[in-house]
Design goal:
Layout lengths: L4 H17 L5 H4 L60 H4 L1 E7 L2 E7 L3 E2 L2 E3 L1 E3 L10 E5 L2 E5 L5 E7 L4 E6 L4 E5 L1
Antiparallel strand pairs: 1-2, 1-10, 2-5, 3-4, 4-6, 6-7, 7-8, 8-9, 9-10
Length: 179
């Protein structure tokens, strides 16, 4: 009996194909199912009534600490010019969280360097009017300006050295920012 090379290859391939179809390597996986997962623990959900929202522009002065009696705020020149000794202000020097004092009431204002409108976003934290309406801030030369939602100036401040700004709100109230 003589086999040709082509015949031998054909028989070998047929044997390989037939043996590959009958393998049992993967048959054991078909019978295995993953174990079911346990349910996540469920806690008890409770509900409480929220207090009614405060009307815009109204605050309860009793919830804000008052500034110390010896706090002094520098007054601005009546023509809006920078006070003597005011230094140039940069956005990096303003970015952060400030303690704000407005006419004896205290709060905080966050001033991140997140672009917003013509300046940067601002976030008042439990501030009295008009500072509760701050939405953005920007610097120009020696002046820091705080803006409302429509882009109107709420306050103009100047550096008083170190980490302090003093100025006035648009309605003439003294305002001070410190860290």
């Amino acid at each position: 009996m003589t086999f040709s090379k082509t015949g031998l290859v054909a028989v070998s391939l047929a044997a390989l194909v037939a043996s590959g179809c009958s393998t049992s390597r993967f048959s054991s996986m078909d019978d295995q199912q993953p174990a079911p997962l346990e349910a996540a623990p469920a806690g008890k959900v409770t509900g409480n009534q929220l207090p009614p929202p405060a009307s815009p522009g109204t605050t309860d002065p009793s919830q804000f600490p008052t500034a110390p009696a010896n706090t002094q705020v520098a007054s601005l020149p009546p023509d809006g010019a920078a006070p003597a000794g005011a230094s140039d202000v940069t956005a990096a020097s303003v970015a952060g969280v400030w303690n704000v004092s407005v006419s004896g009431q205290s709060c905080k204002v966050a001033t991140p360097q997140t672009k917003f409108g013509a300046g940067f976003r601002a976030g008042p934290l439990h501030c009295p009017a008009p500072i509760d309406g701050i939405k953005s801030w920007n610097v120009a030369g020696k002046q820091l300006t705080l803006y409302d939602e429509s882009g109107g100036a709420l306050a103009r401040l100047y550096s008083s050295g170190g980490s302090k700004f003093d100025g006035q709100t648009s309605n003439g109230q003294p305002i001070s920012l410190t860290r």
